[in-house]
Amino acid sequence: MNSLTNIWNHPKTSAAGLLIAVASIAGVLSQQGVTLGKAGTGTVVSLASALATALLGLLAKDPEAASQQPGQSFSPDSASQRAGASSGSAKLGAWMLIALLIPLPWMQGCSGISVAQDIVNWTPALQSAVATVDSTAALLAPADAPIFTAATTGFDAASNLLVAQAKAYLANPSAGALQLLQTQVVTFQQQVNSALLQAARIVDPNSQTHALTVIQAVATIVNTILALVASISSKAAVAHMSAQTGIKLAMLRPYLNNTRAAELIAAHYGEPLTVARMQVAQVEQAEINAGF
Q1: Sign of CA dihedral 191, 196, 201, 203
Q2: Of 17, 29, 99, 134, which has the most beta carbons under 10 Å away?
Q3: Which long-range contacts link 163-172 to residues 24+ away (Cβ below 8 Å)?
Q4: Max alpha carbon distance in the chain (Å)?
Q5: Consecutive 10-residue runs of the chain (292 residues): their mean pLDDT?
Q6: Which 8-state DSSP code applies to residue 247?
Q7: What DSSP string describes 79-96?
Q8: CA distance 113 to 118
């Protein structure tokens, strides 16, 4: 009876909780390839997720309580009630916003065109990260610079090829272009993973920290692109992609700083850092589960 009473007394919160649950479950089903049938050009699962998030948005836009009118007597109790209601509405709105923002673009079953455009949109950040890697060797201890240079050789060529193939797929989203994109993103990801493991062997603490930081910036972008590509690939293709990875993400966890990764994601998508942290953890785990 207490549960029913709570639902009756707090209908807005209860409705938000239900919609958040629907959106979350739909996201998990979508990641697992469960569609529950077609709905127009999409799926029943994507339709349910879209409706849930849309209704959450409507709930989050409810007007605030009316402010005190001129001449109205002040009551501490009423002021406290208004403050409590305002605080509750703010908290509810915040959780709704988080529920709406948690799924990254690559977790939403985007079309091939939108994914390719998103990859191309990462081009400036990727090129900047690679340029930073190129200039880092001069900042390391003399004994460590050759190790770092050897570990990161090929980043420029790999990043340029990945961007070119993303643009080619955006211009002509064919199966052949997608296959080339799948191959290149896995190849580049493995180069970056290898570089992280090699940088971790650098003895000098300052050099090691600096090396890992700049390589991880590239790794964050490449893993983001990997997730984007996987989101428009078939299960068989994703399985084939993961089979080509010898250095798994789980092996790199001791050397990764998820806060720095979240800062990069938050800056790119213009979202709160707290949300970006959850997204980074979600996507990392999804990629590990997929065998990467």
Answers
A1: positive
A2: 99
A3: 163/119, 163/120, 163/123, 163/126, 163/127, 166/116, 166/119, 166/120, 166/123, 166/225, 167/116, 167/120, 169/112, 169/116, 170/113, 170/116, 170/117, 170/119, 170/120
A4: 77
A5: 56 61 58 56 56 56 44 48 49 46 48 81 94 95 95 95 92 93 97 97 95 97 94 94 96 92 94 89 90 94
A6: S
A7: HHHHHHHHHHHHHHHHHH
A8: 9
Q: Is 36 left (phi over 0), alpha (psi -120 to 50) or beta?
A: left
> What is residue 100's three-state secondary structure?
helix
For residues 166 and 181, the answer to whether their CB atoms sit within 8 Å is: yes
Token output for 154? 């090929």
Instruction: Name the residue type at position 21.
Output: A
Predicted TM-score (pTM) of the model is 0.66
Spatial CA neighbour of 104 closest among 237, 220, 189: 220
For the chain, domain boundaries:
2-101, 108-289
Computed on alpha carbons and rounded to an integer, the radius of gyration of the chain in Å comes to 23
